[in-house]
Write a structure and sequence with these properties.
Two copies of one chain form a homodimer.
Chain A lengths: L4 H16 L5 H8 L3 H13 L3 E4 L5 E4 L8 H9 L23 H17 L3 H4 L5 H9 L1
Antiparallel strand pairs in A: 1-2
Chain lengths: 144, 144
């Protein structure tokens, strides 16, 4: 079971933003994690559309969190960043081809498993990911 | 969040086997679900290696479940069929490039979410997927 690379990068840039606590540039993030600028640019743009980041152009420009880390719930965030990829095809009516959809008992079981997965994420916010005894080390590694 | 196509096909062929209750041919399964024979052949071979299916060649040959459906626990099965794709790269030491691995608090949260996901599947067996009031309809659609 895999989260999309899009979700992975979203979580990374938001954690960076939460640790930084002030405006930053995209290049800082690509350097900190060693990830592709091209892909990250799309992620930042989408996170701005979704209301997680604010971006300003120009000399005074940069990226900041659009709301406090404690108000960004991980369950909502990952549901937003996962978007369309259904756990299996029958969870998306647009792509389903399975003939037993509608009577299949597996779908209910997978649906419950997915709800329990997101229930754990719903109990945590972005703040929890950068909080605690490891905050100093994370800050040192990412922000230098 | 997505299961691999390999897991998806594995679940389908095992549900088919459980509904059939006797030896069957691969072509029956590809026809029933309208899926690729090429991909299904790999799935059947791997499920035989993993001890979920038995395959016999020759005129009396065919595919059968290697154990009763009530002894095939979905959590174990999906862990087996998912294999390597880690939920995010840091769950696989061989592919991790993230510099905050080891101090990142998100990893523990995602790990717990994944355990809760599999805990739901661990409460069910293959028998549960083909049992109950919808069994007759699933049998009609798949087996004709």
């Amino acid at each position: 079971m895999r989260l999309s690379l899009f979700s992975d990068y979203s979580l990374r840039v938001l954690m960076y933003a939460a640790l930084k606590g002030e405006s930053f540039q995209m290049d800082e993030v690509t350097k900190a994690y060693g990830i592709s600028r091209h892909h990250l640019a799309k992620v930042v743009q989408r996170l701005a559309q979704l209301g997680y980041l604010e971006t300003r152009r120009g000399r005074q420009g940069g990226i900041t969190l659009a709301k406090p880390p404690e108000e960004i719930r991980l369950g909502r965030l990952v549901r937003d960043t996962e978007g369309q990829p259904a756990i299996v095809e029958c969870f998306d009516p647009a792509t389903n081809t399975c003939p037993i959809n509608g009577s299949c008992q597996l779908k209910g079981i997978l649906g419950q498993a997915l709800r329990d997965f997101y229930a754990v994420l719903d109990r945590h916010t972005l703040k929890d990911t950068v909080h605690g005894p490891h905050r100093a080390r994370m800050t040192k590694v990412l922000l230098g």
